[in-house]
Amino acid sequence: MPNTVDTNKSAQPVYGGKNKLIGKDYPTADLYAKVTGKAKYAEDYRAEGMLFCRLLLSPLPHARVKHLDLSAALAMPGVKGILTADELPAPADSLTDNGTVIRANKLGERGLTNEPLYQGEPILAVAAVDELTAVEAIEKIHIEFERLPFAIDPLDTLRPGGPNPRVGGNIWHRPPAALMKPGERPAPPPPIEIKELKWTEADFAEAKQGRMPMGHVPEDPANSWSYGDVETGFKNAALVLDETFVTPDTSHQCLEPRSTMAYWQNGKVHVYTGTQSMIQTVPAVARWLNIDPSNVVLVSEYTGGGFGSKGTAAISLIIPALLSKKCNAPVMMRISREEEHFIGRARPSLTGRMKVGFSKEGRIVALDMFSIINNGPYDAVGDAPTSGRIVSLLYQPQAMRFRGLTILTNTPPRGAQSAPGGMQGISLMEPILAKAARKLGLDQVAIRRINAPEGKPPFGAANSQGKRAYATSSFIKQALDRGAEKFNWNERVARNPKRIGTKVRGVGVSMSCYSGGSTGFDGLTLIKPDGRICFQSGIGNLGTESVIDVHRVTAEILGVPWEKCDVCWGSNSKNVAWSCVSGGSQTTHAMTRAAHAVGMEAKLRLQEIAAKTLGGKPEDYEVANERVFRKGGGAGLTLAQAAQKAIQLGGIYDGHESNPDVNRYTKASIKALAGQGLVVSARDKYPRDGSTYSFVASFAEVEVDVETGKYHLLDFLAYADVGSVLHPKTLGGQVMGRSVLGMGHAIGQKWVMDPAYGAMLSRRFHHSKPPTILDIPARMEWAALDIPDPETPVGSRGIGEPPVGGGCSAILNALSDAVGDEVFRRAPVTPDTILAALEAGRPMQHPLMAHI
Amino acid sequence: MAVIRDVMPAFDLLQPSSVADAQRLLAQHGRDAWVMAGGLDSFDWLKDRIKKPKVVVDLSGIDELRGVRSTSDGGVEIGAMTTLTEVVNNPIIKQKFGLLSQGAELAASPQIRNQGTIGGNVSQDARCHYYRAGWPCYRAGGNICYADTPTGRNREHAILDADRCVAVNPSDSAPALIALDAKFVIRTSKGERVVDAEDYFIGPDIDITRLNILRPGDLLTAIRIPSAFAGAQFYFEKIRDRNVWDFALMNVASAMLVSGGNIDRVRVAVNGAAARPLRLKAVEDAVRGKPKNAATGEMAGRLAVQGAVPLQFNAYKIPLMRNLVKRAVAGVEVSTRAS
Q1: Is the distance from CB of A656 to CB of A519 less than 8 angstroms?
Q2: Burial level of B202, CB count in 10 A (0-12/13-18/19+)?
């Protein structure tokens, strides 16, 4: 069997070294509820007298509500109230913890609208005794629209005389801040505006040749920067490639749509919803409803997927909250799959162009990159600037120029989706790198190795002091080497024949990276008088298990067996710590640091209690095996005794005083826990030199039937550089799962829109084609280097997002290895893409069109 | 009035236990009635509130419509309400008419095949994005086709026999049944009628609002497969974007008796190319008596796509149909890939 490869070359490494908990597998506390169906998601909650609400969605991509007659609907028995956009609270400015004013975007998304900016945007909501009544009421509503111009394609609106998606233009513009006088407090920035950007006919001349036009980009340091001498780089390059590429819009497809139940009690709003981040969703809800955060009770024990689309839940949750207030009854808003496709966020497609100069050894000597993001109508996503930043970090071009544009369109609003911008940027670069290796006669692993970042690699442009930002570390070269060995890369490349009958095999490798951690959050731990430890977790339970995993660090430090630990999560009423937003793959890094800090603080407090109780100095005592005891043996206290003592001591020991470093949300939780045991809190103040990024090397093999264009994914391996492994099973789940998310972009997931009507045609799961279990490779493996990050005490970094770009690009590269470089300039690559191109001998799909 | 989708309207659910009762109920309620088999197609229409029948006549309680029976001529009769899973797993079908097992097994997903029926699979409506979203197109009684415009999205649409509407028939079992020369048994108010499989399906030139010959009140009760192609050489292939839970971009089915290396008797059908599954009679006539080899396959493929007209986004269907028909006639070299 010449075509089979033994992929079990080496067994999964042992992670975590001599640790008892960190790096070891265990069943998480939420597992049983999930697999037995007992876990309660937002839709599972009921409250006495609960009403249901349904939404009236705009049938048009851009219009103004001219006339609205609700009388017949309101007259229906069982209809309890209708909420329109006129009843929404005004967008309010907010304050950060350090007192900085965040100006509300008055032109931003508000949940309901009288000027729908995309087909499917909610206009009003009807509350009734049941959904059927609410729906029948909506069908009785008489509504008339004034049609307004619309654009669903960013290039269309950039054309001279092209339609504007919003009254006033097609791009966001932030006016410069007022000049500060010396000694004065900075004034809040001026509100963001909408401006018009049009390119010239001359700019568009290139579009006729299938190349992305590149017109004017407004001054903006995030979207227009360069370093090094790009032109000289191109002049001296051995090979220059200039390619246009289009990536798909992809809905997040969370299995749990953004359903929410809400009611009001004693002036507080109780919100049951799905969110990636628990405690950080509280201020978001307060801001949307324009109420004080102390009046928000949030319940989110389980969340059925977020992938960036539920960073801090979704603004649509204000609809049941406001209807509940209006109707004086609890209101449940269940979101259908079609509605989820409209309001549920999506990754924006990127139309991009890259001119890349290579030395004959394959080193990228010059790069000119231009990204255009289809943003939808509301707040700008960060995908365009991020695409440039990630490419500059991952491929370390010697000179680079970046231009990015985030264009408003009348399409459903985009949001962050796993590796936003990074995934698209990598998908632009990787096929070019694969082509360059073929043209230069280089091995695909070698060309990546020569361009890979290492040490403290710089990225982006220099700041005003002339300094470039840099990552804390990168060991992706080792990941490439070990991955190539584990994948039998050389044997697969050398295998002959590549083609048997109509089936052609191809192998691909890709690098990938994304942000992997933030700093500065709190840990809060309660050691109870019975000796058990409770970790007060403000992290969201979004499925990654970081809500539980990170607390193993504290248990490891204190030497407490995991069986004696409880994790308390799921509601701010449970008195939890201020935690990071679970987005940007920051949680593992940020919250292991906080867990480490609170572990060290707990150790100190236990030593102090022992010294106060048994005499001597705190440093005479050590903490291990559920005890604090005199070094070298002797008198000591159990954790239970220490907790009882803490209550007697009061003050900083039992929570009557707070650690002054922690956030006000953590302080409120400490106050509520006071007197229950040893209450320990701490803020992560550990230093960090550099920005935190994680890296993945991905390998894939595919087999293409050249007579039908149909292909299958055979093998896949992701080798991760994510610092110290915290929990192998959940790490593997993230590496494999997010690789699959990336594969979806390569093999078929997309939006299909009709440009003449501005209408979404892929409104359901099976229309937009996320990958199924039978589409992913039959053999999938992962491994991690387990090299600690030098800039964080536990050594662990985040992993949610870094595999995504690799999942997509390794497949694309394997495909071009199989069928050649002149078949596709886009993702996804579907049978029609391949077959039409093989038939014609050149790429046949429209080079600048995403929504086919 | 505002439009809302994805909530099923209320209706009276009628569950007859015999075909006669079902017919009586359909006669009684006339245009207000909707016939439901497995519900996979029906629930889409109902949940989207595009079809709002007053009564739904659910055939799932009619035992006489279920099951697979051997017939005296060595063939089988399949009750219209037999699930696709039952069709796939039936040992007689597997042994004699494996072409149908293959086609049925490639439909949708295991869950859908557990619920979906063979009668429903062949009788389901078109899946054109525009039509199914309730756009007032020709097929919906309007006077425009939204898919057949220079900008309309028509990657999945027809390359043959289009007439105003360019939607295609989505069934995976239909081409297999045509290739097996199956007969469809229909109960009408006037009694029983039996038609050839290929005559069950109609294009927009005959009636643009439906994909088959069933008139209101008619019921497809059974599908009979004669013994003519029992144990013959079969070929079925379905090309779709995803490996499960996806309609065919195109599929092909052939049944063939070969003697002395020459094609003796053959039937070939393709679906996903037109509004009806196409029996390729010209191809059959051309290859009959010819050796079963690559040259005959090439010729068959070229002949199959004569007259094909691509739309903006579906030109790939021409080489796809050409290659699939080629394989259905000449076979395909099997890769040694270990899966």
Answers
A1: no
A2: middle
Looking at residue B214, the DSSP 8-state letter turns out to be: P
Q: What is the C-alpha separation between B213 and B282, in angstroms, rounded?
A: 23
* Chain B residues close to A339, C-beta within 8 Å: 6
Looking at the predicted structure, is the pLDDT value of residue B188 above 70? Answer: yes
Mutate to test the interface with B, among A67, A150, A708 (most CBs of B within 10 A): A708
In this structure, are residues B100 and B86 in contact, taking their beta carbons and an 8 Å threshold?
Answer: no
Q: Is the CB of B210 inside 8 Å of chain A's CB atoms?
A: no
Q: Any idea of the CA torsion for A485, A488, A493, A499, to the nearest 10 degrees? A: -160
Cα–Cα distances in Å, from A148 out to A99, A159, A164, A757?
40, 18, 9, 12
Q: How confident is the model at residue A632 (pLDDT cuts 50, 70, 90)?
A: confident
What part of A 333-392 touches B (C-beta under 8 Å)? Answer: 336-339
Contacts of B65-69 with C-beta under 8 Å, sequence gap 24+, read B65/B19, B65/B119, B65/B221, B65/B222, B68/B92, B68/B93
pLDDT tens-digit series, residues A605-619:
999 999 999 999 999
HEC string for A71-135: HHHHCCCCEEEEEEHHHCCCCCCEECCCCCEECCCCCCCCCCCCCCCCCCCEEEEEEECCHHHHH
Query: Which DSSP symbol is given to A677?
Result: S
DSSP structure string for A504-539: EEEEEEEEEEEEEE----EEEEEE-TTS-EEEE--B
Check CB contact under 8 Å for A501 and B323: no
Work out the angle at residue B317's Cα, subtended by the Cα atoms of residues B311 and B320, and round it to the nearest 5 degrees: 165
Q: Which of A754, A836, A838 sits opposite B146 (nearest CB)?
A: A754
Beta strands across the sheet bearing A692-705: A499-500, A503-517, A692-705, A711-721, A779-784
- The torsion angle over the Cα atoms of residues A669, A673, A679 and A683, rounded to 10 degrees, is 0
Contact A772 B313 (CB under 8 A): no
Distance from the Cα of B244 to chain A's closest Cα (Å) equals 7
Q: Number of CB pairs < 8 Å for A and B?
A: 148
For the record, the structure tokens of B83 come out as 């699930």
Q: Are A306 and A334 in contact (CB under 8 A)?
A: no
**CA separation for the pair B273, A732 (Å, rounded):** 43
Overall average pLDDT of the A330-356 stretch: 97
Tokens for B68? 């697979």
Is B22 a residue whose pLDDT tops 60? yes
Q: Residues with Cβ < 8 Å from B59, sequence gap 6 or more?
A: B16, B22, B35, B36, B37, B65, B80, B81, B219
Any B CB within 8 A of A769 CB: yes
B316/A57 CB distance under 8 A: no
Of B153, B319, B324, the CB nearest to A754: B153
Are residues A607 and A337 in contact, defined by beta-carbon separation less than 8 angstroms?
Answer: no
Backbone angles phi, psi at A648, to 5 degrees: -65, -40
Judged by a CB distance cut-off of 8 A, whether residue B307 touches chain A is no
Contact B146 A132 (CB under 8 A): no
Rg (CA), chain B: 20
Report CB contact under 8 Å: B244, A59. Answer: no
Among B110, B148, B134, CA closest to B4: B134
Ordered DSSP codes for A149-197: ---SSHHHHHSTTPPPSBTTBSEEE-PPPPPPPTTPPPPPPPPPEEE--
Residue type, B321: M
**Residue B334, class by beta-carbon neighbours within 10 Å (0-12 exposed, 13-18 middle, 19+ buried)?**
exposed
How would residue A180 be classed by pLDDT, with cut points 50, 70 and 90?
confident
Please tell me if residue B320 touches chain A, with a CB cutoff of 8 Å.
yes
Quote the ipTM score: 0.97
Q: Is B41 on the interface with A (CB under 8 A)?
A: no
